[in-house]
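Q: What does the assembled structure look like for these inputs?
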Amino acid sequence: MAKSAKKAKSKPEPQPEATTKTTTMNTPILTTASLVAEGVDGSLTVDVTFMFSAGIGQATALLFRKGVLINMQSISSSGKIHFSEVQSRDSIAVNGVCTGTADITVNTPTIPESPLHFDEGLIISGFLIK
Amino acid sequence: MTGKIVGIVVVVFFCITTRVLAQQTPTPNPILRADSLATGNYKDVLNSFFQLAFDRLSNPDKSIRFTGTPFAVMAKLDTTLLVDTSYKKYTALRNLNYMFALRLDTSFKFNGFSSGIKYAIINKRDVTVSKAFLNTVIRDTVVKQLYSLNANIIAKIQTMANSDSLQREYINFTFGKINFGALSLPLHDALLAAANNDSTRLLFDVLKENKNFNMKKFADNLYKDMVENFNNNALWTVGVTDTTLKNQFVFSNVVFHTEFLKGINKFNKTKNDLELDIKSQIQLVDDTLKAGQDLKRAIFNFEPGINWVLKTRTTKKSYLELKFSGGYYRNLSTLYASDDRDRIFVNGTVRVRIFSDIWVPFEVKYDPRNGNLLGFINVRANFRALAGAAKQLL
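A:
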């Protein structure tokens, strides 16, 4: 009985070590300098405007920099999503659905040029900031 | 004879003009695709926009009927009502139908006037305002995989050489302009690599085996299947219709009616649908044996039926509908010598779609007791009036 109590006490010990390892491994990749939106020359605030008509819709816009997700916002009716500190060569992926039509406009030059028009159905698209 | 010729000419003219009007739009209007997936029977029960009908062509008592919704007219005049924030507020108005009809005799001369209103107490088929439908779509496993693939590849392209041209090419792919097999090698390989993970396993398998994979068609088919299932939901309407006399504004007939529709093979992967259609009405008519005008003769009618909808394989539009129903009539008023208290009919309706928006329903009623067979032929044209209005918003 006493032996099993000792065993039970000693088991949780490796866990903090594993947690520390994971954090240490991830920290270099997720530094604020490399990934998080920061105020550098040429940074801009980008508005992605959604207009749903003849029906409802919802969409999620995901902002990527150097292949890594740095911001994600959703909208469930016509309106704007604001991304601050966006840089040239960032990408915005757009996933959504509309039961009427949807028009998506980005207020900065993009590839492809906005607005993009979507008929009833799934919205699967994206923009590369010039 | 002259009347029949005039009738045929009018119907041919009606079909041609409607077809010509429809062709003025260069591409099929995609805005109301959910509406075009609806069955002809459903459009006869509750119309989303406008419908022009030519009823009982082969009978002495014909009518030209116009059905519409107040919202269709309002949206034509003010296109900002179509923006979702306003559109949702007018759901009740879209569930209301009004109707005007001119009744014509054998010589196509005016023989009275009809009007009516109908309201959908339960309308679980209006896909355009259903949050539940949106949730069904975005929670679908395959839709999630498409979203995940889109995010993965957008993130990948920005890190690749020639990202500008690859981005354009990928967007053309998402709009269905290029098939998977026709993509440039870097994008082709990047898409396969982006799909090669557990969250997009199904798409990876599809892409690997199908060079002709078209993302737009694939996404559209997924969505159409979900709309089709949604169109099996319940619809219950109530309404009142009246008819005036030929030469004075006095009601000769008032009908209180209700109708219930519901698909009975929801979520089945069958090509064809079965729809339960139950109608009931009380008709108040003039007792012609008494002097003056009254509405003292009351006839109750109950008509349960099944509508069998045959659909095309790819577009999922119904092209032929066969409805079988039984009709029970009970005379609730004083019986006269030639009257029956109860009558039973066996009804059949064949509804053929001759053009995208034009249906020709042919109705047959059979009275098994007396051996009487009655046939009616009608023409229905559904106008999708908000097409142009929605485009004006752009």
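Chain B has two domains: 2-124+237-392, 135-224.
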